[in-house]
Amino acid sequence: xxxxxxxxxxxxxxxxxxxxxxxxxxxxxxxxxxxxxxxxxxxxxxxxxxxxxxxxxxxxxxxxxxxxxxxxxxxxxxxxxxxxxxxxxxxxxxxxxxxxxxxxxxxxxxxxxxxxxxxxxxxxxx
Length: 126
Fold this sequence. Notes:
The chain is mainly alpha-helical. It has helices at residues 2-25, 30-35, 41-73, 77-99, 106-125. The chain contains five helices and no strands.
C-alpha cells in the first residue's frame, strides 16, 4: 500500500510542478494562457503577475510533498507523514476552492485535486 501511496503523492507533486511551469515560466505563450481560459493577450498580460505567483504556490506545495516523501523514506515517519498530509490536503483544498469559482472549473479542479486526494487517503491507510 505504501508504494501506491508514494506513487500517488509523487504524481500529485509532478502535476503541481507542471502547473508551476505553465503559470510561472510559460505564461507568455498563448497556448498556455488559453488552457487556463484566458481569452486575449491583453487579459493574459493583466493576470500574468497573479499566474506567476500562483505557479510558485504550486511549486512550493510540490516541494513540500517531495520533502515529506524523502523524510518518510529515511525513517522520519512522523514528520514526513505530517508534511505529506499537509501538502496533499492543501492541494485538495485548493481544488475545492477552484470549484467554488464556477461550474466551468469542475474539470480543472478534478485534475488538480484527485491525485492528492488519493495520495492523502492511501498515506493514511498505509
